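Sequence, please.
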């Protein structure tokens, strides 16, 4: 992982889970898939650093990624307790500093810890989204810079910062304006799904249709940075999920700037988990053997 984080070569495959309690099941999939290199967990700002969960992920042989969401997920879109403006102004620094110290302790042995702050900032899905409740791209960048400075002051060299927009869609804000800068970002991320006909008015979309254009946009934005597909998944409504898995991994393996894929192993807008469809699980295992060299 250190080669990838530093900009070297290598491929990663990971799973994202909805709850810390799902980590053992995700780690257990390594025996069926052949490997699980990264396990991603979601942590809202109502929670402290998940020390025990990070330890469990490391014990499984995977690299932990924390998707760090500045909200209370039970309170919906419009909430201001953890606003970008408050973060940038340092109003939440006692919490941020505690989190940073715990992150430093969890990576003190040199093992990397991926930190994905406020994902999909270019959408209107979350309180931190550009355009939501007056948020600007500048607010997002200022909040990111402040957090990065706090972590640097605490000395967290093992923490690798992952900036992860969503694939641009209707009404999405421009990516470049919300990019914190090469010196602030270690890895680029990208989120995108194929919901097929599982949602009203939806249609089947290939991995190229979902991710291809956005990946190229990211690479132009920061050509010296490696890219992780930080969230992805497919339904089996409207097409073959197993074929989608094979095409996804071939797409990712075809570009040397893309170093990993993290599959969402939880039910979201559609039934994403590989384990929901044995043929898709087998397709992923085969792809990891043939197209996705470690």
């Amino acid at each position: 992982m250190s080669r990838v984080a530093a900009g070297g070569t290598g491929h990663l495959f990971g799973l994202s889970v909805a709850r810390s309690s799902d980590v053992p099941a995700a780690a257990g999939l390594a025996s069926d898939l052949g490997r699980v290199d990264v396990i991603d967990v979601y942590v809202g700002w109502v929670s402290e650093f998940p020390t025990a969960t990070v330890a469990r992920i490391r014990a499984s042989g995977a690299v932990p990624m924390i998707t760090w969401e500045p909200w209370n997920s039970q309170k919906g879109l419009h909430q201001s307790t953890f606003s970008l403006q408050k973060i940038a102004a340092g109003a939440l620094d006692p919490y941020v500093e505690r989190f940073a110290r715990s992150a430093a302790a969890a990576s003190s042995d040199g093992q990397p810890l991926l930190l994905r702050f406020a994902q999909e900032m270019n959408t209107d899905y979350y309180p931190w989204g550009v355009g939501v409740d007056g948020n600007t791209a500048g607010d997002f960048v200022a909040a990111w810079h402040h957090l990065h400075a706090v972590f640097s002051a605490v000395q967290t060299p093992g923490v690798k910062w992952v900036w992860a927009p969503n694939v641009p869609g209707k009404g999405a804000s421009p990516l470049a304006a919300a990019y914190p800068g090469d010196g602030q970002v270690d890895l680029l991320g990208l989120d995108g799904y194929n919901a097929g006909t599982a949602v009203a008015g939806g249609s089947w979309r290939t991995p190229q249709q979902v991710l291809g254009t956005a990946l190229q946009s990211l690479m132009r934005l920061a050509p010296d940075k490696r890219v992780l597909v930080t969230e992805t998944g497919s339904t089996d409504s409207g097409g073959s999920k197993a074929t989608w898995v094979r095409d996804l991994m071939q797409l990712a393996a075809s570009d040397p700037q893309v170093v990993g894929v993290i599959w969402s192993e939880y039910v979201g807008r559609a039934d994403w988990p590989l384990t929901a469809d044995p043929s898709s699980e087998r397709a992923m295992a085969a792809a990891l053997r043939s197209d996705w060299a470690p």
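The chain has one domain: 2-290.
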